[in-house]
Design brief:
50% helix, 9 helices, alpha+beta, single chain
């Protein structure tokens, strides 16, 4: 078992118990995918057919509006999953880009293989049930924060919850993710530094 596959198996085992037979069933259904910095994993018009685990590196998911502006939907680093779930679940064309921010290694599972695993290793179905519940809670909380809190509060929550993210992504991506301009993000960072001193 290579180190990236072992990393994903360890990730599964943080949530569900797996025995040796489970692991032997899972491993042949995994694929390693390498991306160079700025490579695209998914582009509009393509259909997402894999669940993708980030073993190394970082990616961001974004769409472009009619004026050509990028809007960051998701940031992802090691031990996170990244996908266009709407495209994956509906088997329809994606409206988003998923792009590597750094050289990246993914472990991915094709949808057909994942459906087989749900039957062959029911604990994987349980893993995804719990993962999806957690993802829904995070999405709902992010929506609630965007509606209720000011930008400075959202920024502080973001850097508290994800302390490693800020140094891994360009400032314009973080600003876009938070729904503010890069100039405003710079002002918030200065205010945060001043408040802590």
């Amino acid at each position: 078992m290579d180190k990236y596959t072992a990393q994903l198996i360890a990730h599964f085992k943080e949530i569900v118990p797996l025995d040796e037979n489970d692991i032997k069933t899972i491993i042949p259904k995994l694929e390693i995918k390498e991306l160079d910095r700025k490579d695209y994993l998914l582009q509009p018009g393509q259909i997402s057919r894999h669940m993708r685990f980030i073993a190394k590196g970082s990616l961001h998911t974004y769409y472009t509006d009619d004026a050509g502006r990028e809007h960051t939907m998701q940031l992802g680093i090691e031990n996170w999953w990244i996908n266009d779930l709407y495209s994956y679940l509906s088997e329809s064309a994606s409206r988003m880009y998923i792009q590597a921010v750094e050289d990246t290694t993914l472990v991915q599972i094709h949808k057909n293989n994942l459906e087989l695993l749900y039957k062959e290793v029911p604990k994987i179905s349980e893993f995804w049930r719990l993962k999806m519940q957690g993802a829904y809670l995070i999405l709902q909380e992010r929506t609630f924060e965007n509606m209720r809190f000011d930008a400075y509060t959202r920024y502080k929550t973001f850097i508290t919850n994800y302390p490693d993210i800020e140094r891994r992504f360009p400032q314009y991506m973080i600003a876009s993710y938070l729904g503010i301009t890069i100039e405003y993000l710079s002002a918030l960072r200065k205010k945060h530094i001043a408040d802590r001193s």
